[in-house]
Amino acid sequence: MALDVLLSGGTVLDARTGESRRADVLIRDGRIARLAESVDAPEGVREWDATGRTISQGWMDMHVHFREPGQEHKETIETGARAAAWGGFTAVACMPNTDPPIATRDVVEFVRKRGEGLAVDVYPIGTVSKRREGEELAEMSDMAEGGAVAFSDDGSPVQHGGLMRHALEYARTLGKPILGHEEDLTLNPHGHMNEGAVATRLGLPGIPGLAEEAMIARDALLAEFTGGHVHVCHISTARAVDIVRQSKARGVPVTAEACPHHWALTDAAVEATGYDTHTKMHPPLRTAADVEAIKAGLADGTIDAIATDHAPHAGYEKEVEFTEAPFGILGLETCWGLTVRDLVRPGVLTLAQAVHKLAVAPREILGLDVPALEEGAPANLTIFDDSTEWTFGREHIHSKSHNTPFVGAPMVGRAWAIVNKGQLVEAEG
Description:
Elements: E1 5-8, E2 11-13, E3 20-22, E4 24-28, E5 31-36, E6 46-49, E7 54-57, E8 59-64, H1 77-87, E9 89-94, H2 105-115, E10 121-124, H3 140-146, H4 161-174, E11 178-180, E12 193-194, H5 197-202, E13 206-207, H6 209-226, E14 230-232, H7 238-249, E15 254-258, H8 261-264, H9 268-272, H10 288-300, E16 305-306, H11 315-318, H12 335-344, H13 351-359, H14 361-366, E17 381-384, E18 389-391, E19 410-412, E20 415-420, E21 423-426
Helix pairs in contact: 2-3, 4-6, 6-7, 7-10
């Protein structure tokens, strides 16, 4: 850690307490050496002007798809980390739907090794079942020893209730959560967008909200019974939010995340864009009522974290008929701009609440240490603002792929730099 820099003129926001103050941050050898209202730059130390900007603990995206190993034509751990840094994230957790999947300790360790030396901390998520087939538990303890921070079968959700029960019991002994792509696949016969009026009008097979809601209800009951921690990934319907809210009220160990595309767009976007495959994700874009429920869930704490479900695909994979296209869009580069535009500026969340859902909650859910904002601590920081108005363009995409519906969309708020692992990475473009 050879980084020496003075971040001057900024506002320091402690996302754990919500307290903010005007302060300079002197970083020596990658650690916070001084944190005070006014600090003079020592001789030979670069001064980085943070005037008008906020400095918080580094953000974490607990739900990304970096595609490595096996699908490097979409994204690699290196290019994904590059996109994460540009978006203001100092840490990510990688979902296991790779090829081979992150289902054994050697693949867990491979992902960790590929993340070494990058400015972004890369944490692997192991599978619940062997090969994500939902038939037999994976070697969860072995993967945890190798560095897996959680378990998930991701887009192949565990359909067998007995297997999920045993997974939760086992994960509880390891102190790890099960991250659920919550969907009863028997209620989704190969749908491609939200089941509703728009899908009917477009003649597209729908994905009913019931498929998500039924599985959340099952897993919440299993969590209540076993004491295991269920985390609901990319929650998307009003009833799903209600089920989580009611479960939390009973003391069930359940947490949830929401993704920006699920509050920034509705299923009407599929029709408005003429079947643009960049509006196809899983779970799908829902209705305006669902959007309002997600915002309410974020506001009242039902939804703990903000994550992106960053899902890169090569251009040729998306440039097909809507029903043939894979699900998923990019998310890392647009997350903060949509969070401020749709949540902070309208008053759904305060700035401190939004940053808490990005910096603190994901790490607490995964049992990771939250970076300290104090002298002597390793510098793990995000530098950002909540005022810059800008338009997202292709030049802002730092992922290997380009599949996003937000090119040309107005944004509010920019991440300007991260500091982590003795590196300062500034956002360009």
